Structure formats: C-alpha cells, structure tokens
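Field reference: sequence -> structure
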Amino acid sequence: MGALDEGHFDVELENGVKLGCLELGGEEVSDTLAIEDAVKVLLQGLGEDVNREGIKKTPLRVAKAFLEGTRGYRQYVKDIVQGALFPEAGLDEEIGHAGGAGGLVIVRDLNLFSYCESCLLPFQVKCHVGYVPSGQRVVGLSKLSRVSDVFAKRLQDPQRLADEIASALQNGIKPAGVAVVLQCLHIQFPASVASNHEDWVKIQVTSVSGAFKDEKVGVWGDFLSLLKSRGININKSCTRDSTGKSWCPSRSPSISPTCSSFGSMNAKMLTAVTSIIQSLGEDPSRKELVGTPSRFVEWLMNFQNTNLPMKLNGCTIHKVDSLSNGEVNDEMEQIYSELNMPFWSQCEHHLLPFHGSVHIGYVRREGFSPSVKSWLQSIVHFYSFKLQVQERLTRQIAETVSSLLGGDVMVVVEAYHTCMISRGIEKFGSNTATIAVLGRFSTDSVARSKFLDSIPEANGG
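Structure field:
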C-alpha cells in the first residue's frame, strides 16, 4: 500500500535471516567500525576530545545503539510468520463474528520505537494491529508484535511504517484484511536555546486492507470500538494521516537551516552522517534521506557553543516560606525558588537528547529580593547546551548558583531521556530526577522538605 510496492515483500518473504539479538558477524563488525569512525568525526566537530573519560567509549555505544535500533534491515517477515501459522476451524474465506478463523483479532498497545528518517532521532510509537483470519488458520499473537517491530527498527516515517506493517501481514498470513493504527510521538525541537520546552509532536496514522476497506462489512467500525473501549479515540474515517503538516520538527520553518554556512569541519560531519546511514543498510541518496545529514548535524551543533547570551525568560521567583535562622540577631531568612526552568541537553554517552525542568531553591535573608531569574536561566542554559550527563549537570548548576548566591542552594533536575525510553527500560513516560544540595540544605531536612513540597505545586500536582 502507498509507500510500498508488493514486490518488496515478495523478496522478503522468499528470504530469511536469523532473528534475535544482534550478532556481530564480519559485515556487522565492519559497519560498527565505520560508524565509530563517523561518530569520532562528529565529536571532534563539536570541539570534544574523543579521548576524554566519559566519551571515550561513546563512538562504540552510539554504533551499537544505531545498529540495534535498525536491526529490522537484517530481519525478514518469513522467519517470524511461517512457523507461527496454526490451523483453527472457523469461517473459511468469509467475514463473520464466530471467533477463531473468520473473526476479528486485535492486539493493542504495542510499544515500539523507531528512528526518524528526517533527523535520525528516535520517536515513540503506540501500535494497534487487527486482522480477520481466513483459510482456517491464525497466526500466533506475539508475531503481530514482532512483525511490527521489524519495520519499526528501521529509519522510518509514520505512514510508511503503518503501510509496511499492514502489507507484510497481508502478504505473510493472507488474511481477509489487516488494519494498523499508529499513535506516534516525536521530541519537539526548541526554536532557540532560550525557548521553553514545547510538548511532543503527535501524529496518528492508519493503514488498512481487504475487509477493513469495506464499509458495508463494518469490521473497521468494530476495530475502532474495541480501541475506544481502552480509551483510544481514532477518527472514524480511514484517513491515512491525521495532519497535513510535516511530521518531523526538524523540517519546521522555525528551525532555520545554517548548513549553507558550514565550514570544513561541518562538511566532514555531513560526510560522517552519510556514512552512518549507509552503514545501517540504507541508501543515503533515497529522496527522503537526502537532507537528513544536514538536519542531524544542525541539531548536534546546538550543543557546541557554550557562550550563551544572558536573557530574561519570564520565570518568576516564588517565596516558599520563612525559617528562623536561630543565629545572629534572630534575623529571619526566606527560601526562594525558581521552578520549572526548561532545559535541553545531549547525552554524551549516546548522542541522544534529554530534556526537562530545573528547580532551584536558595536561602537569602529577609528583605533581600534581587532579580536573579535571568542569571539562573542563563546558568541552566550554559551547562545544558553541551554534551552532558544529568548528574553532572545538576552538580554544576548547584555549584555555580551557590558561588553567586551565598552557598545555601538546592537543585532538582527532572528529565526525559531519549536513550532510556528508546533503548534502556523502553517505557513511555519514564522520568529521571537528580538532586544536589549545598550549605544549609545539606543538613536542614525542614528546608529541603519545604522546597521539595513546592515542586509538585509548580508542576500542577
């Protein structure tokens, strides 16, 4: 359907390779080394020392992540489907509701991850697959997930991904019809280093064949009703793409390209990304991939320059509560906080983005209310827009703020890590929090508690 010709699947269904964990044979070793070399060029282009502790093994980690995340190029549907077709009495070659062969079968809420072909960053997929068996045979339910994963583990576009899953199942198990619904989330790009974090880019796509195209049969309506029973609301029509906008944020007009002004090092970086794409098993000259190297380098270059301007950001300082100091003259102190300061950063271990919010609490004497919010946000930007790890980012912000505001500082960083949700625990919505405490906060549990209690309120809790 659509982006896919059936001949492609005829080839896949006639061939097969060993599935399972990625095993590095001779060709894979060569690809790994090629990607490692390319990643070293990218790191050097960012001004990094490739021998620095912390990123010394980054080229290998990135290579393994890319190859694992695109292992679908080395897998074939035949190996999954043919050994998992089982005879089941039912309605032969007819549409019915008797269950078994001839009745609608649905697998919902499959969590998948894929690499965006436009920017090489992972995106999340919630996949729902339905089919109507025919020929008195059914396929093992787990195979619907595995077939979906084969195509997700490639450089993808949501609509093509839906089409490829549907076509593979239609050609592989010969059902009366197949329906695939994908709900996709792509990390939003900041328009500038000082911009607030925007929500995920969301898109919903569908791909249907056979009985699901026949409105008189009503199978498509049944499929949607069973999704709705799980709180999944899909447009009643069989629209293939729920938006007319460009899917990937890297193609947004607000992301201004600067590749025309790339210097010699950036040209090397473009060549390096092209090499990575080729090593993954793709054709860099495919029209959808032609601009990908420049978009990926454009994203990476955000994390090269750390000389960020000091800009006001519109955040407000909240006075949380007053505490008795119990020291000289019984003067009162206040805990002030700057909450929900957005940040973006790039994991130095996998070259994947992480983003979230920074909350800073500090103690100053009663009556002292300087306008420090622009300082704090600039400090956050300074340390976040570079290759980082969250623990170091938290410590660096705390130490710098402490040196400016008198020592009593507490910093909480909450972040979503692309590397965790796409290749670590692989769970949607997973979040990491890190804390750094200095001065009074390190010994005063009451002060820590008052500051921490203010964070859920700031997050709308």
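Note: The longest helix spans residues 26-45.
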